[in-house]
Each structure stands twice: as structure tokens, then as C-alpha cells.
TrEMBL record:
Source organism per UniProt: Magnetospirillum fulvum
CDD domains: SIMIBI
Cross-referenced InterPro entries: P-loop_NTPase, T6A_TsaE
Keyword Metal-binding in record: yes
Superkingdom field: Bacteria
Record localization: Cytoplasm
GO molecular function, one term: ATP binding
Gene Ontology CC terms, in alphabetical order: cytoplasm
Family: Belongs to the TsaE family.
Main location: cytoplasm
Keyword line: ATP-binding, Cytoplasm, Magnesium, Metal-binding, Nucleotide-binding, tRNA processing
GO BP annotations listed: tRNA threonylcarbamoyladenosine modification
Protein name: tRNA threonylcarbamoyladenosine biosynthesis protein TsaE
């Protein structure tokens, strides 16, 4: 399977938000974006910007840390925002209707490693890393499946 990788410096929180909005502009139903990085790396910031780009700028986007999933109806299709940090076993994701999300929605998944073998191989991996500067991050994007064809269209 073909893949594409790019690295993007994110000097501040605004640039992380710009990346989220740029990814939203390219997203379509059936897409999965796997967000990885340590606590405080910017996963939720990127997800909020992504969702607000497809809904409205003032959309209330709570972290799904306790509910595990939030669903947003958007003109681009349903956006499923998963935070799987508290998921005990991969099979527990079926209770969250994750197969419906994979089939019909646009999925943003924080802590995707919790899915183990259930994590689809065709996806966009966004790994966020902290840097020496407090607000700066670095994004490593690895695209497979249809994302590999679209990642070159990313406009920041």
C-alpha cells in the first residue's frame, strides 16, 4: 500500500488550528484521522479546529474523554470524535458504534493505539510532538489509502 509522509512545524497553537482546518477541507466520509501524541501535545486542539471548520467557529466541542465519543452533523457528513484513552479493550469500541463511524463518517480518533487490530490500515496518522518551545509542536503526517493521494493538496 502506498504511503506519503510529511513533517510540518507548528510554532504556536494557531498553526495547530490551521492544520486542523486544512485537514477538514480535505476530509470526506469514510476517512479516518488517527491523532497520536502525549498528554498536552495538541490532539484536542487540532480536533476542535477540524470540527469547527466543518460546523461553525463557535461550536461547543467538548473533549470526549468521559463520553469516549461525540458525533457532529456537518455538511461534509457526520464527524465522529473519539477519545479512546479510557478504552479498556479494543472490542469495547463496538459499543461506541465504531463500525458505523468507519463506514459512513469522518473519524477523528485520539489514542488510536487502544483499538489494536481494529484500527484500519487506510488512514491519516497525525503524530504531534512537543518541542523545546512551550507552545511549539511538530506534526508528522503519514497518509495511506486515499489520504496518500490527497495529502499533497494540504494548504496551510
Amino acid at each position: 500500500m502506498m504511503s506519503q509522509s510529511i513533517k510540518i512545524p507548528l510554532p504556536d497553537e494557531d498553526s495547530t488550528c490551521r492544520l486542523g482546518r486544512a485537514l477538514a477541507a480535505l476530509a470526506r466520509p469514510g476517512d479516518l484521522i488517527a491523532l497520536t501524541g502525549g498528554l498536552g501535545a495538541g490532539k484536542s486542539t487540532l480536533a476542535r479546529a477540524f470540527i469547527r471548520a466543518l460546523t461553525r467557529p463557535d461550536e461547543d466541542v467538548p473533549s470526549p474523554t468521559f463520553t469516549l465519543v461525540q458525533v457532529y452533523d456537518t455538511p461534509a457528513g457526520a464527524v465522529w470524535h473519539f477519545d479512546l484513552y479510557r478504552l479498556d479493550r479494543p472490542d469495547d469500541a463496538y459499543e461506541l458504534d465504531i463500525e458505523d463511524a468507519f463506514a459512513e463518517g469522518i473519524c477523528l480518533i485520539e489514542w488510536p493505539d487502544r483499538l489494536g487490530p481494529l484500527l484500519p490500515t487506510r488512514r491519516l496518522d497525525v503524530r504531534l510532538e512537543e518541542t523545546d518551545r512551550a507552545t511549539a509542536r511538530r506534526a508528522h503526517l503519514t497518509a495511506t489509502g486515499s489520504w496518500a493521494d490527497r495529502i499533497g493538496e494540504l494548504c496551510l
